[in-house]
Each structure stands twice: as structure tokens, then as C-alpha cells.
Design brief:
By secondary structure, the protein is α+β, with helices and mostly antiparallel strands. The chain has helices at about 25-30, 65-70, 95-105, 105-115, 120-130, 135-150; strands at about 5-10, 15, 20-25, 40-45, 45-50, 55, 60-65, 80-85.
């Protein structure tokens, strides 16, 4: 059953080198009614993920990461049926306990981290959560705390 304010369109998945994305028609962005960088829920092949539409080289685009391509089974050049829904739910990053403890021990790093956007917070958290060994996790946490304490995104 379609959700209220759901917008559907068909397009081709663009791939230029390692960059893969969906070109969103101007009228779709206008119909969402949330400005030029709306946060959306994107559904491809019955898989839904959260993203934001961005303007790149004068076109509205949605990124489709390798993780999303793997989960949806799509590749560059594929014809896609895209469903967009405005996403007004809060975006929160879940912190691994080890990283949260390290942040709590460094007030400067914690204050800087708390001011970051969702995407920038994710840039710090994802490499930490994707590690396989505790040693690598600790190295990445240390690096993140150093960068945050120095005001680096």
C-alpha cells in the first residue's frame, strides 16, 4: 500500500568510475516540497534506505553506495523504479560503547563531535564499527579522538 506523499519515478542508475547515483528529476524535488537538499527514504527493489538529495553539477542526485548496490542487487546502467518519501524522522548515530567512553574522557573531542552533522558523525563511527579486531578498533578510536580534539572533520 503506497504511503502518503510517496513519489515514484523510473530512471537509469548512473555510474561514473566508482561513483554511482540516481539523477532525481527537478519536478520530483519540487514535489517533495522540502527545499533543494531534502532528506528522503529511498526504496529500490523492496529495500529502503535513508539518504539526502544533493545538487551536483547542476543536477539533483542520490548516492547509491556499494553497500546499497549489494543489498538491492543493482548496478550501473540498470533501469530502476525509484520510490521516494520525505524523511522527517530524527537522524541519530549509534555509538559503539568503546568510542562513547573515549569521547566522555575528552571534553574537547566530545563537544566537537556533538556539533557535527549526521553524515560527519557517520564518517567517524562507521570505520570503528566495521573493524574485525579489537586492536584495529582501538587504533581507529584513538585517531578519531585526536582528529575531533583538533577540530578535524
Amino acid at each position: 500500500m503506497p504511503e502518503k506523499n510517496e513519489i515514484k519515478f523510473t530512471t537509469e542508475l548512473l555510474q561514473i568510475g566508482n561513483n554511482t547515483g540516481i539523477c532525481v528529476p527537478d519536478e520530483v524535488v519540487d514535489n517533495l516540497g522540502a527545499g533543494k537538499k531534502p532528506k528522503v527514504k529511498v526504496t529500490l527493489n523492496d529495500f529502503t534506505y535513508r539518504s539526502s538529495i544533493a545538487s551536483m553539477a547542476g543536477k539533483f542526485m542520490l548516492s547509491v553506495s556499494s553497500e546499497i548496490r549489494n543489498k538491492t542487487g543493482v548496478k550501473g546502467g540498470d533501469k530502476l523504479n525509484v520510490i521516494l518519501l520525505l524523511d522527517d524522522e530524527p537522524r541519530e548515530v549509534t555509538l559503539p560503547a568503546e568510542f562513547e567512553n573515549a569521547l566522555n574522557q575528552n571534553k574537547k573531542a566530545k563537544t566537537f563531535f556533538e556539533q557535527l552533522s549526521f553524515s560527519n558523525k557517520q564518517r567517524f563511527v562507521l570505520p570503528i564499527t566495521q573493524t574485525k579486531s579489537p586492536e584495529t578498533m582501538q587504533r581507529r578510536i584513538q585517531k578519531a579522538i585526536e582528529d575531533l580534539a583538533n577540530g578535524k572533520k
